[in-house]
Write a structure and sequence with these properties.
Blueprint: E1 13-18, E2 27-32, H1 37-41, E3 44-46, H2 47-51, E4 59-71, E5 74-88, E6 94-101, H3 108-113, E7 118-123, E8 126-131, E9 137-143, E10 145-148
Parallel strand pairs: 6-9
Antiparallel strand pairs: 1-2, 3-8, 4-5, 4-7, 5-6, 7-10, 8-9
Length: 150
């Protein structure tokens, strides 16, 4: 496989602690490194950067939820993908959501049987950053398919 330099996801942004008066809680803000919002939206993060390792690509699914189709920025009643909430053991146990089109591969019952954690691999995993209404940059990840790993 050779020596590959893995650029971890955390290298794309910095987390800074914002000190508040003692009457308020400390708050973490994510500040992008260089560039504008438009530039950050064009960066595609690959599977190795998201997962944190090229060794096996295994992540842990903790929940599966239906995802609604959006038309002109508004949600419809149609379900066109499923959202897999995952933990990334090779990337500091970060939590992300990965969208996959089609029917869910894992049911709530299967998750319950496995104590709420099933190991999987994603095919075609990639992500982009977007900025939410609070001005925080968040990773939006999607994959072509998902496969359960024994």
């Amino acid at each position: 496989m050779g020596n590959h330099r893995v650029t971890p996801l955390v290298s794309v942004y910095h987390r800074i602690q914002v000190k508040r008066p003692e009457t308020q809680k400390q708050q973490t803000k994510i500040i992008p490194i260089g560039g504008t919002k438009k530039m950050l939206n064009k960066i595609i993060v690959n599977d190795i950067q998201i997962i944190g390792s090229s060794v096996d690509g295994t992540v842990i699914v903790t929940a599966v939820r239906p995802g609604k189709r959006y038309v002109d920025g508004k949600a419809t009643d149609e379900i066109d993908h499923y959202k897999y909430d995952v933990v990334l053991p090779n990337n500091g146990f970060e939590k992300i959501t990965v969208k996959v089109k089609g029917n869910p591969l894992i049911t709530k019952e299967q998750l319950a049987q496995k104590n709420g954690a099933i190991k999987v691999k994603f095919k075609g995993l990639a992500g982009r950053f977007y900025r939410n209404d609070a001005g925080i940059y968040i990773l939006s990840a999607s994959a072509e398919s998902v496969e359960v790993v024994n």
